[in-house]
Task: inverse folding
């Protein structure tokens, strides 16, 4: 699987159940959300802007997309968690299964971030993103075309300690009409 | 990583946080447990018995172990979940990173079971176990020597639908004194 196929499989609306384990305290958090993943044109202004921000040549962009989410955590019953972010893959010209992923909103911290991805031999997308005070390691894979799993770890910036481990199971909600 | 190294890294006492997502209902279940993984001798009677049960030559056994767990679910506050099981890897003589895993208690069903494992290039242990009415697919990997993640999927026996997706984060509790 290459990045184009991986993104193509991800496009759509998903219902997500996410459990976060806050390891130091042994706490569980449960989040339910709707996730919308939409393909963007390679010349979408948001894509071009993100390339400029990271000093990346926009002709190298492959399969950019926008992810939008809205949900609720059992920690903050009355608060809606929502957001949107633009993600732009830049494949490594020499190694087809690796590359960089630009995003305009980070996962561990709400700043623009740039991560390194690899697609493994068994079709798993692995993304490592360093932040100022933390590092995120994500693994995403398809169980079948309509079920996607995602494990996200937030580590200390030195990369040794794991602060939060979270798991999402995502079920496709059918093509948007 | 081969099976010997994988089992050696797993030996010890672990504190586990497990979240199960019951996908059809969107339910979350939280389980906290202690897991003890102990090396067994290749000629331990429990190992030999399990080989006999599955008609496997006991000289092919590598790194057998016993797993014992005790915990509590938020679904059944007053009930203790506990159990023990013997696991016996039988590496494929031709392909070093693959093999079969015998167990005397199944995960999806409480019967003896035999699964197929693969260790991927990035050190993930992937186990597929068919049962009578279901199939289990597990992925286990080390984030560092003291943190282990495990994703377990229970699928319909046809292998297409996912019934339960669960995630465990396991933290080493130090060497048993």
Result:
């Amino acid at each position: 699987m290459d990045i184009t196929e991986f993104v193509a499989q991800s496009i759509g609306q998903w219902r997500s159940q996410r459990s976060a384990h806050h390891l130091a305290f042994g706490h569980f958090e449960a989040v339910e959300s709707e996730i919308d993943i939409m393909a963007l044109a390679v010349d979408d202004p948001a894509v071009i802007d993100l390339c400029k921000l990271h000093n990346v040549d926009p002709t190298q962009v492959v399969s950019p997309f926008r992810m939008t989410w809205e949900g609720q955590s059992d920690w903050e019953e009355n608060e809606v968690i929502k957001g949107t972010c633009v993600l732009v893959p830049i494949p490594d010209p020499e190694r087809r299964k690796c590359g960089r992923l630009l995003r305009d909103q980070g996962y561990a911290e709400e700043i623009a971030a740039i991560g390194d991805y690899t697609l493994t031999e068994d079709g798993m997308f692995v993304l490592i993103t360093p932040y100022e005070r933390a590092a995120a390691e994500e693994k995403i894979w398809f169980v079948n075309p309509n079920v996607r799993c995602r494990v996200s770890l937030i580590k200390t910036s030195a990369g040794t300690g794991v602060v939060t481990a979270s798991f999402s199971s995502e079920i496709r909600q059918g093509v948007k009409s």
In short: The radius of gyration of chain A is 16 Å.
